[in-house]
Specification:
It is built from 4 helices and 10 strands, in the order H-H-E-E-E-E-E-H-E-E-E-E-H-E. The chain has helices at residues 2-23, 30-35, 114-119, 179-190, and strands at residues 64-68, 79-84, 88-92, 95-99, 105-110, 127-134, 137-142, 149-158, 164-169, 193-194.
């Protein structure tokens, strides 16, 4: 009798176990799990595809401040420019520049015949999309063999009575490989003014 009761109890446990297994979701065999995703909407990862990184935040803009332009020569005494805080005003022989980084700078050069020079931009086959933004600003793209550059050239007048003409902008064949950088250069050039 005890054996019969034990046998009935064992059958009841087995029956409950089978019922519970029937209601539970089936797990794939170990070999199948690697081949099929658990959720049909999910796509298995392609081992040849590298994992995508989360997009990085754009670099924060450096604070702008006024810089004295007197180091550029007599014509610039009493004038300032608004440029990034860490910019350097440099005069190297006859070359004047506002250095923004190791690769980017604003070029400033004498430009007595600035207006005539702007008219010749279209004669250079490497220049395209030439736009006269105003009487004192021109923008264009340069497409030399080394790659595309966005250029801006602004006429600034400084010196006694504001009669000395200078070109302020990107250097010819410079490193300005983004339209945003050309925009920043234009903003800096247009900020040249008397103290």
């Amino acid at each position: 009798m005890k054996i019969a009761l034990a046998f009935v109890a064992l059958l009841a446990v087995v029956a409950c176990k089978k019922s519970a297994d029937k209601d539970a979701p089936k797990e794939p065999a170990a070999g199948d799990q690697a081949m099929k995703p658990a959720d049909p909407a999910m796509k298995p990862a392609d081992p040849a595809e590298p994992a995508k990184e989360a997009p990085k935040d754009p670099p924060k803009a450096e604070p702008m401040t006024d810089h004295d332009l007197a180091p550029l020569g007599k014509d610039f005494e009493g004038y300032v420019v608004t440029a990034p805080q860490n910019a350097k005003i440099e005069l190297d022989d006859a070359s004047r520049s506002i250095v923004l980084s190791d690769v980017d700078s604003v070029s400033i050069g004498e430009a007595e015949f600035w207006e005539d020079g702007v008219k010749t931009l279209a004669t250079d086959k490497d220049n395209s999309n030439i736009k006269q933004v105003s009487a004192t600003e021109v923008r264009y793209e340069r497409n030399p063999p080394l790659g595309k550059a966005w250029n801006v050239d602004t006429l600034i007048k400084v010196g006694k009575g504001g009669k000395a003409k200078y070109s302020c902008g990107t250097m010819m064949g410079g490193t300005f490989t983004s339209e945003a950088m050309a925009e920043q250069i234009a903003t800096i050039c247009k900020s040249v003014r008397k103290k």
